[in-house]
Amino acid sequence: MAHSQVLIALLFGKKLNTDKMEFGLMLSPTLSNLTNMDCKPRLGLGIALYFNIKLSQNFFFHPELSPKAVFGAKDITPYATGTPSVDGIYLNNTDASVQRTIKGMSMPLLMRYRIKGLLFAELGPQADLMFQPKDIFKTKIDGNPISYTTKIKDDVALFDIGVSAGLEYKLKKDKGMGISVRYYYGLTDVITNLSGSQKNTAWYFNVSIPIGVGSQKQQ
Hints:
By secondary structure, this protein is mostly beta strands. The protein has one domain (2-78, 100-137, 155-218): Porin (Beta Barrel), CATH 2.40.160.20. Helices cover 13% and strands 58% of the residues. It has helices spanning 2-16, 84-90, 213-218; strands at residues 21-34, 42-54, 59-76, 97-116, 119-141, 144-151, 159-170, 178-186, 200-210. The protein has an 8-stranded antiparallel β-barrel with strand order 1-2-3-4-5-7-8-9. The protein is elongated and about 65 Å long.
């Protein structure tokens, strides 16, 4: 799906960019995490298509669609799987840890405000569809890495709703590349088999690339 998204951007980017609208591709190195769990952020790479629609000189509507969003965490303490051979390896092993990976499809719907010049603030809701969640158990035996993967579909919510906020700086006036930092905080309890409330959080470090703008200027 991500490959198809890149192809769509390249084929139709020129036609979708107008005086009032910018269309492009966004690359998003992401640090995802889960609240109320003993874990650390997991690094991943997201890809999205975006529109930046000019409402006035200072206000913009900025929707995105990412078929390759990153969720989860790493360095989770191993838990009992119910399989004796697996539990014998990973439980009570100080070198063992679990990485939780969750693929997602995200749709942020952001409003952007020009603070000054090429600096913008953004804020808005984000809806996420989460799928293919899995836990990867990792350790080493006699210096050799070993891993065990288990699917956790029944333990993870399918949908998540949250809020995103960030700052973007355009590297060039009008429809130039941009760099931004954004924070996402989920409002949904996404881990259903644990007590308390575990929510998605993420830091995004985005690079936005308008598609077809250069050819428009040449014409």
